[in-house]
Amino acid sequence: MDNEKLIRMCVVCKKRAKQFSLNRLQCIENQINIFTGRGRSFYVCNECIKTKKFINFLSKKCNKSKEEIKKLIIHFPFSISD
Ligand SMILES: [Zn+2]
Fold first, then answer.
1. Is residue 28 left, alpha or beta, with left meaning phi > 0 and alpha meaning psi from -120 to 50?
2. Ligand 1 centre from 54 Cα, in Å?
3. I need a labelling partner for 17 at 20 to 30 A (CA). Which of 3, 4, 6, 29 fits?
4. Residue boundaries of the structural domains of the chain
5. pLDDT digits (tens, 9 = 90+) for 17-53
6. Distance from Cα 22 to the centre of ligand 1, integer Å
7. Cα three-residue angle 43-48-54, rounded to 5 degrees
8. Phi and psi for 8 in degrees, rounded to 5?
9. How sure is the predictor about 81, in pLDDT bands with cuts at 50, 70 and 90?
């Protein structure tokens, strides 16, 4: 397989990038996780993952309040800037 052709889109800024340069996450059973290899997932770039826009996206995607989202992603290896 040619990895150069695996282009995916950031769900926040819609920028297209190579799959391996984006963060692949998913909402499963009311948790937000790094993609486990099963089920539906979405991609977010390294810039957007730190933004409030991404929290807004997760809030809709996972059907939770923004406050709940912030708690869910608190263990992630990045921080959301206010
Ligand atoms: Zn982005």
1. beta
2. 9
3. 29
4. 3-72
5. 999 899 999 998 778 888 989 999 999 999 999 899 9
6. 9
7. 80
8. -125, 165
9. low
CA 1 to ligand 1 centroid distance, Å: 25
Kindly report the pTM of this predicted structure: 0.83
Residue with tokens 């695996």, as numbered in its chain:
6
Distance 55 CA to ligand 1 centre (A): 12
State in Å: Cα 30 to ligand 1 middle. Answer: 23
How far apart are the two ends of the chain, measured CA to CA in Å? 40
Tell me how far CA of residue 67 lies from CA of 3, 22, 48, 52, in angstroms.
37, 25, 18, 11
